[in-house]
Prior knowledge:
Distance between the termini: 39 Å
Helix content: over 70%
Oligomer: single chain
Structural class: mainly alpha
Largest sheet: none
Radius of gyration: 17 Å
Keywords: Membrane, Transmembrane, Transmembrane helix
Transmembrane segments: 56-79, 100-119, 125-141
Amino acid sequence: MISFFVVANFWYEIHYTFSFHIMRAGKMTMVCDFAFLANLSLIPVMTKWIMGDLSVLSVVCYGIVYFLVQIFELATEIVGMRSSLPHIKTFRKFWGRFSWLRFIWLFLLNLVFILISFVQPRLGMILYLAFPIINFVMPDNRNQRTRKGDK
């Protein structure tokens, strides 16, 4: 049941990306999306592993897979927006910088979670499982901002 929330959170995020940011998906967008889905399919297996055998190895492997899912989600978004908005160079430049900041943030956050997992595997597991569940359950203000801007 826990992995359902983790996968649901990623599905919601990628749905939002394809609905509002990617107007036309090229071949590279689909390759990135396939890599995203391939890694996402490992989340239930990894969740079962850390629930059944809580160890440093299981939590670190979960962390690596979780990081890969996040990176391929970001790559899908970047490549998709590039192919959808080739004519808006200023926006692409801004989005590229923002994406690098997101990449650095994701890398550092996952690095901290993995380092915590080496010392306290249980705490690492809680952090990795709680983060997407909280993100999924929390209200999303993006739709409200979009609706207010349309009026």
